[in-house]
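User: Here's a chain of 302 residues. Predict its fold as tokens.
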Amino acid sequence: MEVIVKDYGVFLGYSRGALVIRKGGEERRVPLHMVDRVWVLTGGAAISSRLVRALSRSLIDVVFFDGRGEPAARLFPPEANGAVSHRRAQYEAYLNGRGFELAKLAVGGKMANQARALRRAGQWRREKYAELAEAADEAARLAGEVRRCGDPQCVLGLEGAAASVYWGALSAAFGLPGRDPNAADPFNLALNYGYGVLKYAVWRQAVVHGLDPYAGYLHADRSGRPSLVLDLMEEFRPHVDLLVLRLRPAGDWLEGGALKREARAAIVQRWGELGLERAVARQVAAAVAHLEGRAAYSPHRL
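Assistant: Prediction complete.
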């Protein structure tokens, strides 16, 4: 199960094989063997070092998020460090072309999934199905064009064209404000938070598989920017889009210009219900196999 801590004044401890959650005079115990992950979504919680050691022994992560959905800190067990040969293959892939091919396939997979997401969204708005299906056809066509790209600029150009079609169609069908990562409306803030949760999931698997999160192939290298994580996130983004669309964020999701704690917890809870952690792990493992030349990469399908 996912343990989600969203309230101020919560203390997390450990006693007799159980994670102990205390707030005020209330106490809840969760057997450690039932815990998959601990999400801390507030800055007002405390965690005991004894619990941290117990979680580490049980290979359970603790992840801390800021209010925007960015992973602020991650506690990984020391065993989660992968094989050095994977990182060596990752760096060599800069020179042998496998890295760019991986990024190209991931972006093409994202665009194909955008087409599938549009068709799925059309089932929720039957009166707009024709328009959404038309946009899906165009996104699928652009996804097919990516295979012929020989440089990052070509890939990014087609990705941008598909994004314009995708978000234009969704915005028109559902009355959305459009996609703007810097906007302060509930929909865009919820998307940012959902992408942050996805980023954590991909980042964790990159570390587990011994990859360098900062050495990607399509997103430009910049100090502090997890370029490989951003590359591998792409094909999963439409899952987050549909997740947020189903939650229907509205004005009551906001407090002081930011998402309420309850809204942030709802996004994390829904992510857990999707069960995508295993799919993310499979795709990162497939990326390693591709970089080592053992198997061609096949993108995740929505």
